[in-house]
Amino acid sequence: xxxxxxxxxxxxxxxxxxxxxxxxxxxxxxxxxxxxxxxxxxxxxxxxxxxxxxxxxxxxxxxxxxxxxxxxxxxxxxxxxxxxxxxxxxxxxxxxxxxxxxxxxxxxxxxxxxxxxxxxxxxxxxxxxxxxxxxxxxxxxxxxxxxxxxxxxxxxxxxxxxxxxxxxxxxxxxxxxxxxxxxxxxxxxxxxxxxxxxxxxxxxxxxxxxxxxxxxxxxxxxxxxxxxxxxxxxxxxxxxxxxxxxxxxxxxxxxxxxxxxxxxxxxxxxxxxxxxxxxxxxxxxxxxxxxxxxxxxxxxxxxxxxxxxxxxxxxxxxxxxxxxxxxxxxxxxxxxxxxxxxxxxx
Length: 346
Known about the structure:
Shape: flat
Radius of gyration: 29 Å
Number of strands: 40
Number of helices: 1
């Protein structure tokens, strides 16, 4: 069906479908319509309309189809209702995390401190995935001096807290020096004045824990923010273990995913590899470090590729190589293959 206007045909069916689709989504998913106005101009998550106050985590309602969360707040006393930050609000009777009431919170004393930590006069609150809400912590932290001190992805990491005396990780009091304990840049490790630590998931305990890796030495540095290797003085650390001890480090270089060169040694996933096969000081690494070649050998991971002439092997394009006789192209599904190349005679 089409409607003609000013000599032009306007398709009606798509318009009707669009209107019905919008009505269906609005009615059955309960999108807050009309949009409403912000309760407080400083925050973009709490709004009010004729149905009440609601929380919405995205700027535009249609974004909820792909991600985000929204919901109306129950039993709001509008005269005393205040927004504490983008995820917290309260009135004289209740405290809300997003649109959920935190039943154990004392509304009169509840606040979000300057470090971003939610607390009232008796409790510090932590997120519990089992209830999808906040509850009082069970670690005995000192409430007045409790604070968040770790920030990741522009937000607070509530699994890390400290008070005037101790540091806590996932509600466990840690045996670390409170005053010097800190993340080591944007790496996987932590240090205090005495030790290097790493946080990890303990599957048997079903919680995070901090493990002591090595005594702190100097210098301490890593290859990049995502590296699994750390130089700690004369020791080399891979994740939570020391893989090389008491060596003078002249070369410390990451050459691929979980691959690192230390002097003339090559490590992969913390294990020394190709010890008597590859001349590491002269070797070149390609394809995210999976291909290694010196003048005598070419390796794919730890497997020697005997059909390649190592002396003439070189890279000519991003995933294309050659030797004196053949052109080698990285296979499309190389991760499933034992041999990485499609080979073509020159």
